[in-house]
Amino acid sequence: MLHELNLEGLFAIVLSLSIPIVAIVMVFITYIKKKNCETQLRLALIEKGTDAETAKLLIEKQAEKHDKYSSLRWACILMGMGLGALVDALLGLAPKHNIYFWLIIAAGMGIGLLISFIVEYKLTKKEQHEQSEASTQS
Predict the structure, then answer these.
(1) Are 82 and 112 in contact, with CB atoms under 8 Å apart?
(2) Fewer Cβ atoms within 10 A, N terminus or C terminus of the chain?
(3) Local structure of residue 61 (DSSP, 8 states)
(4) What is the mean pLDDT of residues 93-108?
């Protein structure tokens, strides 16, 4: 007997392999189009009389400012998540596969995020105060 060809399985395999390939190709196409658009815009600015370096600075995306409190924020969130799981484990409030287990962990993460906000707010106020004192002394 001939082995029957399973077209559904073959179709699923082909699609599952083609999706990442198409995604990668689309990312490269988008990148190339963006660079071409930036180049055309820069050339148009230069034709209008703008200096080449000024045109480059106008077109380039400004480097994103590093958030100096991101480590603190993540640390507080993860500690809150861990404390939520610890409280749940010690008190046995909810089984692991229950929605209440995840709600307790989410509440711990929210508390950690709130603590992070308070600490960031106080540190920012302290830095602003120190800068204003330094500017008045100068």
Answers:
(1) no
(2) N
(3) P
(4) 81
Q: Which DSSP string do the residues of 70-110 spell out, in sequence order? A: HHHHHHHHHHHHHHHHHHHHHHT-S-TTSHHHHHHHHHHHH
In the chain, DSSP assigns E strands to: none
CA atoms of 88 and 100, how far apart (whole Å) = 9
> Are residues 75 and 119 located together in one domain of the fold?
yes
Q: Measured between alpha carbons, how far is 32 from 104 in angstroms, rounded to an integer?
A: 46
Residue (of 57, 60, 112, 54) closest to 83 by Cα position: 112
Are 54 and 76 within one domain? no
55 and 77 inside one domain? no
Task: Confirm whether pTM is higher than 0.85.
Answer: no
- Give the highest mean pLDDT range of 2-16, 29-43, 56-70: 29-43
Domain ranges, residue 83: 70-125
End-to-end, the C-alpha distance of the chain in Å comes to 94
**Res 66 pLDDT > 90:** no
